[in-house]
Design the sequence.
């Protein structure tokens, strides 16, 4: 596996690769790789001639009071996983090369970022869309892989790629979970034992909401309240938001219909976790 | 000359071209081509294997009270000029293909757009940087050509390309002028005869400012006032701004030093004209 640190070297690699005409699969990450990332790398490996991964803890997507400095850095283990999963090229850019002192360009997506993570973390999506645009322009992959645990991010990046005419496909991969349902996340390691045992309730409770829908409940308000109540009763966490929304636009649904996504964000101390569940309302039961 | 209207067809052309490995020179325009555009096309032709021009009156870069609807459309003449200047491909995209109804991504540049055109026309640069990013991603040219009459725009686009890691060179071409010094502009045709005879004063007066600098004047305030006074005395136009600024950052200079750019914007009725002049302060005379 080749490791590149400079943008110039990456562009040379990219240019050289173009002549080979093989496909490139790209997995951009913040490092601290876990089983979720592994599944992205495997999916990229299965469907492409070359696999590129990047590791960059992007300061732009963290708010001033957020965990940029404490975000886990586990480079040796990350490198080992990339090697193990057959990554051809690992790109580990330097911050001052991606963001020189006179850097002043921003890429933003409006409607899809207006709520949920975008509302709770106002700097987050402009930071994500700016770095992802840069990386996609640098790599020009055929496919780029994103985890659906960050479902809103996945939709935002699909929109960005469509709007900017980037000729590539954004592939959303299923969330990988621990036995009790907790989604793998780089931030899980910061949960205390007590918090860890409660953390899976987020997903379990979203599933309870899904069950209510399958049982015929069609009022978003009722489902949201049921999730809130159950989460509050069974965990010590602080709920940031619960959303029952259209899976394509992420707009909240008063009445459940079509493809529905349940979103949740909860804080345990300084650790903020998100998760989601997609529910297909059976056709016959639509109002 | 091939003419393409659809993005898909353009991407096919681009992909096919990649294998040929010749250089592409790109001249993006709003149409209503004049001698300034001709010089861009000629420069592109001289330095590249293939020349691509685009014509698109981009609604995003016009404010609600601006001249989007009255902006001149002269497609037949534009096409003739492109043919005459050896353009290989003319891209005339459709508005609803560049901006589908769910379009929601914006590219913006902050510091360089804070003043001058950016201040007078708040929607202008986000519109320009968004469409130019889309076109540069679609074409992936080796060189893209912009006129220096729009000097701030030229700097903004250079910054954008650097910040987004677009692997291409932005070439700024000298302003082409009528005999009396008026810069060619698509909007000149809307000047009345009386306004037309006054319009050249903008450039003439900027040159007067340049002369003051060469004569040793080092106070930005004094030069600006001299330009204002002369322009007010000799034209019926309304001055939008006069700027004496650093040629790289466009920040106003209290004391003249190094590479200086004089910027001006003036309105004659509904027609708004801009121009600029770069002045190199002789080294020996620096403070």
Sequence:
């Amino acid at each position: 596996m080749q490791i590149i640190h400079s943008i110039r070297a990456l562009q040379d690699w990219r240019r050289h690769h173009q002549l080979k005409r093989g496909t490139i699969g790209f997995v951009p990450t913040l490092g601290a790789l876990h089983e979720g990332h592994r599944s992205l790398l495997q999916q990229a490996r299965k469907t492409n001639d070359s696999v590129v991964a990047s590791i960059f803890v992007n300061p732009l997507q963290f708010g001033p009071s957020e965990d940029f400095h404490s975000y886990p850095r586990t480079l040796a283990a990350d490198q080992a996983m990339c090697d193990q999963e057959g990554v051809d090229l690992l790109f580990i850019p330097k911050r001052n090369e991606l963001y020189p002192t006179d850097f002043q360009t921003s890429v933003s997506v409006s409607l899809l970022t207006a709520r949920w993570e975008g509302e709770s973390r106002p700097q987050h999506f402009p930071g994500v869309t700016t770095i992802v645009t840069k990386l996609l322009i640098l790599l020009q992959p055929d496919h780029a892989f994103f985890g659906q645990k960050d479902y809103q991010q996945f939709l935002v990046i699909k929109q960005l790629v469509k709007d900017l005419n980037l000729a590539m496909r954004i592939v959303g991969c299923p969330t990988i979970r621990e036995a009790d349902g907790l989604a793998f996340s780089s931030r899980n390691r910061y949960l205390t034992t007590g918090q860890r045992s409660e953390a899976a309730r987020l997903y379990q409770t979203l599933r309870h909401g899904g069950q209510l829908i399958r049982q015929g409940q069609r009022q978003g308000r009722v489902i949201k309240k049921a999730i809130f109540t159950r989460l509050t009763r069974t965990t010590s966490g602080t709920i940031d938001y619960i959303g029952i929304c259209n899976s394509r636009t992420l707009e909240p649904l008063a009445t459940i219909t079509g493809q529905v996504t349940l979103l949740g964000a909860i804080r345990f101390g300084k650790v903020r976790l998100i998760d989601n569940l997609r529910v297909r309302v059976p056709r016959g039961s639509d109002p």
User: Anything to note?
Assistant: The domain at 186-277 of chain A is CATH 3.30.1300.10 (Pantoate--beta-alanine Ligase; Chain: A,domain 2). The interface with chain B takes residues 7, 11, 15, 18, 102-112, 129, 133-134, 137-138, 159-160, 163-167 of chain A (CB under 8 Å). Chain A is about 40% helix and 20% strand.
